Amino acid sequence: MLGLRKGIFAGNEVGVSWKQSQQLPTTSLVDESSICGREEEKEEIIKILLSDNVTCNQVPIISIVGMGGMGKTTFTQLVYNDQRVLDQFDLIAWVYVSQDFDVVAVTRAILKALGSKGAEEKDLNLLQLQLKQTLMGNRFLLVLDDVWNEDYARSRIIITIRNEKVALIMNSSHLYHLKPLEKEDCWKLFSDVAFHDKDATKYPYLVSIGNKIVDKCGGLPLALKALGNILRVKFSQHEWVKILESDMWHLFDNDANINPALRLSYHNLPSYLKHCFAHCSIFPKGYEFDRDQLIQLWMAEGLLSCCQINMSEDELGTEFFNDLVARSFFQQSRHRASCFTMHDLLNDLAKSVSGEFCSQISDSLEKNITKRTCHISWSHKINIDDKFLEHTLLLLWCYHLVELPIDLHKLVNLRHLDMRMSGINKMPNHIGRLKHLRTLNSFFINKHDVKELGNLNNLQGTLSIFRCNENEDSILERQVLEALQPNGNLKKLSVLRYDGTSFPGWFGASHLPNLVSIALTESKFCFVLPPFGQLPSLKELSISCFYGIEVIGPEFCGNDSSNIPFRSLEILKFEEMSAWKEWCSFEGHS
Q1: Closest CA to 327 of 195, 194, 216, 206
Q2: b/e map of 324-352 (b: 16 or more CB within 10 Å)?
């Protein structure tokens, strides 16, 4: 059994706007030019927010209720960004809650969004006292986006929910049902996407077919955009008729919650995009992923070796990713501009089409793990029979997960292990036996773990290596770093808090010919720098807080008069070098 210690999946949280700055966080911004309709509804909610008519002592709760894909979040963003709302409240914050509701995690998320220093506290009582203190005396607006769970003067709270029962349990003072878009707004949203920069009046037959397709979408903005993006690519009468007359509009199966328009959008993807999208079913709802991280997963799974074209896998992955964004399967995160996410309904679709090969698990979903399951994402305490797990184990946002199981090495086919934002701080024994491992974002090392890491020859992407125990043994520090020699394909290297007196010999041109960027930060004992000048591809070099450096001599450029030092360097940065007294340049070079 794979025994994982307790962990939680905390809802993602985002920034806060203070009235003094009058600047919104990018987390909740919305492109209003792309929104069709909702003006009357927006004015109704703003009227409630600005009203002084409060009939009870508790903070009024406004619940915006609507089925998935109705546009509750986008609508709430319109309200949230209105200048009248910004002027009304001293403090506003937006928190994404998600289906995996945890009262401690949500309270911490709110505090973090408000910039409170007490956000890392784990005791619920202390957290709520801190929240009370933070909000007291301020007029605040708090948005809780996507509340699912049914178990839990002058300020306002807005929540977006699918289930009216949740609003009743939360004792909402205002219940607002967001209706489907009107026919005119539906057509505008669909046609803007499907016809893009074309004049729809020049395609009367497509307009006729498109109107019938719009009627089938039930006024759901997400469905309208998804189908519109598909039909923009398949811009012909034949393809539009195929969509209109598809049997999938009438197909009912075990996935009755999957909108037919979304299923049709998936069905009309090229096969290579279908595989890439289905693989995203391992991500929990609300999970924010980085483009390069996802491309690495696709690459490691062989999903980018399907096309015999003159492109690298990185370039092909970027093209696939951008294509899925353009087709509305991925959307830019509301919380971090550099990340992306999937709408909850598209997450359900991905789980549906991936079948048994990918699984998100929690206490109540253990029965979903079968012998065909290859990829697992996990966010709660669970035991998994190791013979079932083949390729992927994502332990995302598991703050309370402190160690991996001692028998992890038995998962001999494991390819991806992601422990970001978890509490893990040491590696189990024999992890070097996972010879198929391609993705490992973190490795916690001591003197005896170095050889284990050396056996993981198939690793790709980014790897952060952390020292488990603080020590001031400079000889041991150098021995550990010496054993961590990477292969010659390394492009970016960062070393933090290295306390050896000098660097290993592999910090030279013959070992790192492709290295583009180096960042060395904080060292108490190092007194000499490596010959970075001889690295032929080095473009960026940053050295800071090296308190033992008094002299930088010719060895920094490399003692080779036949080669021009730093031939590719574009950026050189030194910071906080308090002991530095002298720089002896290489003779013949400035």
Answers
A1: 194
A2: beebbbbeebbbbeebbbbbbbbbbbbbb
Q: Give the pTM.
A: 0.56
Q: Which strand (E) or helix (H) includes residue 131? A: helix 124-135
Contacts of 5 (CB under 8 A, 6+ apart): 381, 400, 401, 402, 403
β pairing state of 416-418 and 439-440: parallel
**CATH code given to domain 2-177:** 3.40.50.300
Name residue, tokens 């049997």. 247
Read out DSSP for 294-319?
Answer: HHHHHHHTTTTSS--SSS-HHHHHHH
- R_g of the chain, CA atoms, integer Å: 27
- Tell me the sheet residues that pair with 418: 394
Q: Are 222 and 180 in contact (CB under 8 A)?
A: no
Q: How far apart are CA 495 and CA 327, in angstroms?
A: 40
Q: Which amino acid is at 409?
A: H
Taking only the tens of pLDDT, the chain with its 590 residues reads 333 333 333 333 333 332 322 322 234 555 555 677 788 888 888 888 888 766 555 677 888 887 777 788 888 888 888 888 888 888 888 887 766 667 777 888 888 877 776 666 777 788 888 888 888 878 888 888 777 655 444 566 777 777 777 777 667 777 778 888 888 889 999 999 999 888 988 999 999 999 999 998 888 888 898 899 889 988 999 999 999 988 888 765 555 567 788 888 888 888 889 989 988 887 877 778 888 878 877 877 778 876 656 777 888 889 999 999 888 889 888 767 778 988 888 888 888 887 655 655 554 444 455 555 555 555 444 444 443 345 677 676 666 677 788 888 888 888 878 777 677 878 888 888 888 888 887 888 765 566 777 778 788 777 777 776 655 567 777 877 887 788 788 888 988 888 888 898 888 777 889 999 999 999 988 999 999 988 999 999 999 999 999 998 888 888 766 678 888 999 999 999 999 998 876 555 44
Torsion angles phi and psi, residue 361, rounded to 5: -125, 150
Alpha carbon of residue 554 to chain centroid = 44
Instruction: Domain 364-469: state its class.
Output: alpha beta
Using DSSP bridges, classify how beta strands 331-332 and 156-161 pair: parallel, antiparallel or unpaired.
Answer: unpaired
Q: In what order do the strands lie in the sheet with 174-177?
A: 13-18, 91-98, 140-147, 156-161, 61-65, 174-177
For the chain, the maximum distance between any two Cα atoms, rounded to a whole number of angstroms, is 84
Contact (Cβ atoms closer than 8 angstroms) between residue 161 and residue 68: no
Q: CB of 1 within 8 A of CB of 383?
A: yes
| Domain chopping of the chain, boundaries | 2-177, 183-348, 364-469, 472-590
Query: CB under 8 Å to 549, separation ≥6 — which residues?
Result: 526, 527, 528, 529, 577, 579, 580
d(C-alpha 15, C-alpha 93), whole Å: 6
